[in-house]
Amino acid sequence: MIFFIRKSLLTVLLLVAMSGCVGLMPVKGPLDVDGAYRITLGETWSAYPRDSRTKLRNLTIDGEALNSLTFAASLEDGHTLIRTYDRQRLLPVYRSDMSQTEVVEFIRDSLSVGGMADATITSLRPEPFGALEGVRFDVKGATQRGLNMSGTGKAAIEDGKLHLIIYTAPTEYYFGLHEYEVNEILASIELL
Amino acid sequence: MRGFRAIVSFAAIAALSACATTDVDPLQADTRPSEETDEAGLWLRMDEAEDLLQQSAVVVRDPALNAYVDEVFCNVAGEAYCDDVRVYIVEQPYFNANMSPNGMMQVWTGLLLRAENEAQLAFVLGHEFAHYRQRHSLEQWREINNAANLSVLFNVGVAAAGVPNAAVLGNFTLAAQLYGFGRDKEREADEFGFGYFTEAGYDPAAAAGIWEYLIAETEASDSDRKKRQIARSSIFSTHPVTAERVETLKGLAGEAEAGIENDEAFAGAVAPFLNDWLADDLVLRDFGQHLHLIDHKIEAGQNLGVLYFRRGEAYRLRREDGDFERALDNYSKAVLFDDVPPQGWMALGEALQRRGEEMEARAAYGKYLELMPDAPERGIIEAWLEE
Fold first, then answer.
1. Through-space distance between the first and last CA atoms of chain B, rounded to whole angstroms
2. Cα–Cα distances in angstroms (integers) from residue A169 to residues A63, A188, B277, in the given order
3. Which residues of chain A lie closer than 8 angstroms to B285, CB-CB?
4. Is A145 in contact with B283 (Cβ distance < 8 A)?
5. Which superkingdom does the taxonomy of this entry point to (chain A) (predicted)?
6. Is there a contact between A83 and A54 (Cβ–Cβ < 8 Å)?
7. Domain ranges of chain A
8. A with B: how many residue pairs have Cβ under 8 Å apart?
9. Which of A97, A144, A148 has the CB atom closest to B56's CB atom?
């Protein structure tokens, strides 16, 4: 009996510890983003908890390194996408008077600071973000170790606050694997 | 109890005498250490790191630039050592170069961006080569091991002597000692590096010149932390105080024969990369340091189309009072020069559009699309032109 109780206790402790470490939640269908806009996921994604500092949320299907859908809503003037505890660190920051090309530049520079080598915007074009005038962009780069990465995303400013969605994945195989789903997600944006 | 303490103290002293020697001879050309040595172990680890670096996306693979930097290295190191060191140009916006014991040298693009001429680059390459030839990594490795052993034994010794609280002091002095080794080796590398690069016929004043520039640039930084690093002179500073290095190198230069700067060859080698490297530097968002760098380069009077454009970009992103006008002014100057990057026209178009000068903006955008038919912003520009 004592052995059984000990074993059960250990199992519960292990489960609690595991849930504390990973915190992934399966998500599918409509997903509200901080009360600002809604996207609709056609496939089941795994959601990481929202980062309270950067306000970024991250979803993946095959693992963060293989496909990563990152989004945020209502980012204010002076906000950075880089997670840091160093308040003195100089970083790219969002400015509420940015043009569409400057918003994409801000995203690209944030990817660079975040570790993407040779981050380059290959295309940007106007595309609605829900009912807003948005900008769609494609990005290419590489991991520090040389794995080529591709990305696509959309951003828009609403009353001076930035909404953004970025999808990145290794160029070989994985980017194309979920490209259709990502395009559907980007087309599904509804303002709340 | 006293007998036990005496035994521990004796054991500590005996163990110290077994420490590996840190006094090693300079490395001969075309030499690899014997497999059974600790030095071979160091080389093996760095061979693995070099394999990773070779696959990395941050290595600049431009053949002409690599050939140029290799040539400067061979000028400094001499024919015998020319093939012993592999120089990798690494795309990182910071001023840095480093040398591994196995002959893998990294030169960061932030260094190439800041050097004013070939002589300054040659001095840095000579300094790094000195680390290799003097086998500083091996010495450092052995010193760290010996110092770590010393720390353990010191702690055991003071505890055995009945003063356990003094163990804290042991760790403090160990840390200072480790960083102190770094300072001595940097001084030695300066001294040998100076010899190599002046023997190769370079201008001896270039050695102090590059450090003087770095001090001035750092003082212009927006980061108080960076400024403090220059002023700091504690026992924990990992390099000799930069002002001290400048004085030492100036003293050496005063006794050396005149040499060449070779500024034209250097400018020709780096000019194709200037715009990209300045863009990388601006990502760091240290506007004070970045603008100091550009102003310094504008004074030299070359690559003005690139430099005015990049200065405009810094002002545009900084967004202080008057910066919009400064940005527009710099873009307007940039497009007067043949070397302005096509993006200079794009930036001018955006600034003019923002100021409501639509005709002029259309002309600037038109020029940009003419120069860059595959411009990534084509969709955005055409949508605005059609409005």
1. 94
2. 10, 20, 26
3. 90-93
4. no
5. Bacteria
6. yes
7. 23-191
8. 60
9. A144
* First-to-final CA distance of chain A: 55
Cα separation, A116 vs A122, in Å, equals 15
Question: Rounded distance, CA B301 to CA B312, Å?
Answer: 17
B131 three-state secondary structure: helix
Are the beta carbons of B152 and B19 closer than 8 angstroms? Answer: no
What crossing angle do the helices spanning B205-219 and B167-199 adopt, rounded to 10°?
130
**Cβ atoms of A181 and A169 closer than 8 Å:** no
Query: Which B positions 57-76 lie with beta carbon below 8 A of chain A?
Result: 57-58
CATH for the stretch A23-191: 3.40.1000.10
Listed in sequence order, the residues at least 6 apart from B140 whose beta carbon sits closer than 8 Å to its beta carbon are: B181, B182, B185
DSSP E strands in chain A: the ranges are 25-33, 37-47, 57-60, 68-75, 117-129, 132-142, 148-158, 161-170, 190-191
| Contacting residues of B for A148, CB less than 8 Å apart | 57
Query: In terms of DSSP bridges, do strands B104-108 and B97-99 run parallel, antiparallel, or are they unpaired?
Result: antiparallel
- DSSP character string of A32-49: EETTTEEEEEEEEEEEPP
- Do B286 and A101 make contact, defined as CB atoms within 8 angstroms? no
Amino acid type, B146: N
The tokens for B218 are: 């750092």
Q: Does the distance separating the beta carbons of A145 and B354 come in below 8 Å?
A: no
Residue A116, number of CB atoms within 10 A of its CB: 21
- Angle between helix axes B263-270 and B118-133 (nearest 10 degrees) is 90
CA atoms of B213 and B118, how far apart (whole Å): 15
Cα-based angle A71, A72, A76 (whole degrees, multiple of 5): 150
Q: Are B128 and B173 in contact (CB under 8 A)?
A: no
Q: Where are the alpha helices (DSSP H) in chain B?
A: 2-17, 38-55, 63-77, 109-114, 118-133, 136-160, 167-199, 205-219, 224-231, 242-255, 263-270, 274-283, 287-300, 304-318, 323-334, 342-354, 358-371, 378-386
Residue-by-residue pLDDT tens, chain B, 387 positions? 445 554 444 444 344 445 567 678 999 999 899 999 989 998 998 999 999 999 999 999 999 999 999 999 999 999 999 999 999 999 999 998 989 999 999 999 999 999 999 999 999 999 999 999 999 888 888 887 777 666 655 454 444 433 333 333 344 444 444 444 477 888 889 999 999 999 999 999 999 999 899 989 999 999 988 887 765 444 444 555 577 888 999 999 999 999 999 999 999 999 999 999 999 999 999 999 999 999 999 999 999 999 999 999 999 999 999 999 999 999 999 999 999 999 999 999 999 999 999 999 999 999 999 999 999 999 999 999 988
